[in-house]
Amino acid sequence: MSTFARNILGGGLKSDTLPADLSFEGETVLITGATSGLGLEATVHYLQHGASVTITARTAAKGEQAKLDIESRTGKLVDVMILDMDTFEGVKTFVNTFKKENRHFDIILLNCGVQEFVWKPSPEGWFANIQVNVLSTTLLGLLLIQWMRSKPEQSHLLFVGSGSHWENDLSKWPRKDIITFWSKEENFMSGRDAYGISKLMLHYCVNAMDKIASAGGKISPIVNTVCPGIVQTGIARSFGGGVWGMQCVAKAYMALALKAVPADVGARSLVVAAKTTPEQHGTFRRPYLTDDEYEKVSAPFFKTEEAKEIQAEVWKEVVEILAAADPEVSKIVL
Known about the structure:
The protein is of the alpha/beta class. It has a single domain, classed as Rossmann fold, CATH 3.40.50.720. 48% of the residues lie in helices and 9% in strands. The chain has helices spanning 3-9, 37-48, 60-74, 88-100, 128-149, 178-183, 191-212, 244-257, 263-266, 268-272, 291-302, 305-325, 328-333; strands at residues 28-31, 52-57, 78-82, 107-110, 156-160, 222-226, 284-285. Helix 3 (60-74) links the parallel strand 2 and strand 3 (78-82). Belongs to the short-chain dehydrogenases/reductases (SDR) family. GO terms for molecular function: oxidoreductase activity.
């Protein structure tokens, strides 16, 4: 069992509860990756508490299927936009579309992510986990922060992270060309390891984006990373039909061995995180560890000189990659 699982299960499964007076009446919410699992269930919660919600899907067909499911369960309407996180162009097209349509969002939940159990490259040439979970998510986050800071209203930007970020062995990380190293097939260790690597990279990037979102003493938007713990989701879908046995192992790992909470329960964390205050800007929200417990397990990945060196290098490399894909990035990170 992983250290992530032991830390959570050692004190019993914990999950967030939704306050009886919780309301998002009059607020608009954007949720990426909401055609299944946590994203879909978070959409249901937000709608049931008064919000207007727009979800994203990779294809119109998947979006329409999710829309029908959500609307039949809630009796509320949901809007759908197309977002392809496999490419930088897909991210830029998405942002340009809602800017042109003059859309307004009070809360943006970046839930879209992947966990590949075998090595797979993205169309951009990076390992798929790194492309979606790190590069595309960071590009989307930066473009959104720039846009949200131009608005007078306070808003929230939430990134779905994972406690698996503290399951890394930094001694195995190179000190240069980190993104390239972990994108090479020969350096792929396992699906679990690769996921944890991508999520630690994401945490490093969000730490940098926290500072951009609070530049000049103005905190806008309020940025948080959130992890609901171990949740039953469709993560095993990344296995192809030819590896049916591995599908069974993944499903058993998630649902039986770890006794994961249902997606609708885990999704509560993605909802209550939208009520954080400016004083809670930049914090990692999770229901399963106290602040002292989290400080203990996470310190080796953020507080040591080795960790700080790696974090700075990851951010430098990510910015270079993204600036080459979109020159606007250089203006945002200045």
